[in-house]
Design brief:
By secondary structure, the protein is of the alpha/beta class. The chain has 2 domains: 15-91 and 149-154 and 163-242, 3-Layer(aba) Sandwich (Rossmann fold), CATH 3.40.50; 95-146, no CATH class. It has 8 helices and 9 strands. The protein has helices at 54-61, 102-110, 121-132, 149-160, 179-196, 210-213, 230-234, 237-243, and strands at residues 14-25, 28-39, 43-47, 68-73, 85-88, 167-170, 199-203, 216-220, 224-228. The strands form 2 sheets. It has a 6-stranded mixed sheet with strand order 5-6-7-3-8-9, sandwiched between helices. It is globular. It starts with 13 loop residues before the first strand and ends in a 7-residue tail after the last helix. The structure holds adenosine-5'-diphosphate and magnesium ion.
Length: 250
């Protein structure tokens, strides 16, 4: 059983509170009355069949999706301050022949300087600092299109960690990553969670990781149909129904 740094009660340790989140697109009800509390320092996994509303849930939390209900962030000792959110989108596709390097990507995201001028000395130092957080300094001159799935996720993670957020949100970080890379990435996320004392909210299709890494799991199927520890959710009737041939597929 994992232990949470800040306990699992609400009050001051609740980093993200989602109450009765509802999303309707056209006539389609994508999410209805979804409520979830992410406590500070916790790793929370959202699982569910394709089209269940996982990415929509994250987009609503990120303020990119119109929604009903309440979404409140707070961070201990930072009452009244806007919490910082880091976001790693579902793996973007890069052309394998594209000459853009990891350093170019950082320059585009972190400075107004045109990428073709290259990184200044100070900028290069900053990029190395960022990459060091994901043990990726050796990736700085690699072409983005030539990175493996796991390397690309580490680069995107390094971008999301600057500045260090209060909550890190990742959409399917394990897709496109090989089995060995999955454990490496999950170990890294766990290390980052501990080092920087941040909360992580991520979607995944990989249930084998849940027991070791997730404090809470929410099963989404157009609403939250099961919520609890990995063991509780994976053995719930709602899980059985969602992933049976009749109820849905991975
Ligand atoms: P998941 O991430 O669980 O696979 P999504 O949240 O991406 O699911 O999508 C949930 C449902 O919402 C799907 O049926 C999808 O087609 C629909 N949907 C998502 N975004 C839009 C949109 N912008 N317009 C219309 N339908 C959408
Ligand atoms: Mg999705």
């Amino acid at each position: 059983m994992r232990t949470s740094l800040h306990g699992s009660n609400c009050g001051d340790s609740c980093c993200l509170r989602v109450e009765n989140l509802s999303v309707q697109i056209g006539n389609d009800v994508i999410l209805k009355d979804a409520s979830l509390h992410v406590h500070c320092g916790e790793m929370v996994a959202l699982i569910g069949p394709n089209g269940a509303g996982k990415s929509t849930f994250l987009k609503a939390v990120l303020g990119q999706q119109e929604h009903g209900g309440i979404i409140v962030f707070s961070a201990p000792g930072q009452r009244g301050k806007k919490p910082k959110i880091g976001y790693v989108p579902q793996s973007p596709q890069f052309d394998p022949g594209d000459p853009v390097t990891v350093a170019d990507l950082f320059v585009c995201c972190m400075s107004k300087r045109p990428a073709f001028l290259g990184a200044s000395k100070a900028m290069k130092q900053k990029i190395l600092e960022c990459l060091d957080r994901v043990h990726g300094v050796d990736l700085i001159d690699k072409r983005v299109g030539a990175l493996s799935g796991g390397e690309l996720q580490r680069v995107l993670l390094a971008l999301a960690l600057e500045p260090i957020p209060n909550i890190l949100i990742l959409d399917e970080p394990l897709s496109g990553v090989d089995v060995e890379g999955m454990s490496t990435l999950m170990d890294m996320l766990d290390e980052i969670r501990n080092t920087y004392d941040l909360s992580i909210l991520m979607t995944t299709h990989d249930f084998s990781m849940l027991e070791k890494y997730a404090d809470q799991v929410a099963l989404i199927n157009r609403g939250i149909t099961a919520l609890g520890t990995p063991e509780q959710v994976l053995s719930s009737p709602a899980f059985e129904q969602a992933f049976s041939r009749k109820g849905g597929a991975l």
